[in-house]
Write a structure and sequence with these properties.
Layout: E1 6-14, H1 21-24, H2 37-43, H3 46-49, E2 78-81, H4 93-101, E3 105-108, H5 113-121, E4 125-128, H6 131-143, E5 148-152, E6 157-160, E7 166-168, H7 173-181, H8 185-191, H9 193-201
Parallel strand pairs: 1-2, 2-3, 3-4
Antiparallel strand pairs: 1-5, 5-6, 6-7
């Protein structure tokens, strides 16, 4: 996994309040045993993105230029989401889908707690901002689809580079450390192997 520091990117606005995990990845995709990121990335928002016959839903933002661009360094790596993002079932696959699609940050005014933790475990940073700032970001991207947002993990700030407005966000210090070092829980334990062995030796 890539270490987190500062993410500066154009955004993908998904202005759906209560965007539940069944929207994020439909239940039928949970039956597969693969952990291929592309498989789950392709399933991200599948039944909102596509009609039953597989054709794209023309009026959904992910099928409209320039928001249909594949996320890449500095390009559509940040989702601006509606309130209560990730509500519904606790399926970890929803976080796999977001990460597999190429998203590194999701900004919302609120998250479902379990989904927020699942995102962190998949090296996707959930950022909680005020409703006012969330709406400002939506308005900025609506006016200029190529507007950029900067998310500074070390300083825990998110900045609208168009207006210059910024807000602080909270994050668990352990999860922050893991993101900054590209550690999952096992990596963290292994990084402390010498300390653990020294303790056991006593």
């Amino acid at each position: 996994m890539e270490k987190f520091n500062i993410i500066q990117s154009t955004c993908l606005p998904i202005a759906i309040d209560n965007n539940n995990t069944d929207n994020i990845i439909p239940a039928r995709f949970l039956a597969f045993t693969t952990r291929d990121p592309k498989f789950y990335g392709d399933a991200f928002m599948h039944d909102i993105r596509y009609n039953a016959d597989g054709t794209p839903v023309a009026d959904f933002v992910m099928n409209q230029a320039p928001f249909n661009e594949t996320p890449s360094k500095g390009n559509r790596e940040i989702i601006i989401g509606g309130a209560n993002w990730g509500s519904g079932s606790s399926r970890e696959h929803a976080a796999w889908a977001i990460a597999g699609y190429g998203i590194r940050v999701v900004i919302s005014s609120s998250f479902a707690d379990i989904h927020r933790n699942n995102l962190l475990n998949c090296f996707v940073l959930p950022v909680i901002v005020s409703k006012e700032f969330q709406q400002e970001l939506f308005a900025t991207v609506a006016e200029n689809p190529n507007a950029e947002v900067k998310v500074d993990l070390p300083n825990q700030t998110v900045t609208n580079l168009t207006t210059g407005n910024s807000e602080k966000f909270e994050i668990n210090s352990y999860k922050k450390y893991c993101l900054e070092n590209a550690y999952d829980d096992i990596d963290f334990l292994l990084s402390n192997k010498d300390k653990i062995e020294a303790y056991e030796a006593k």
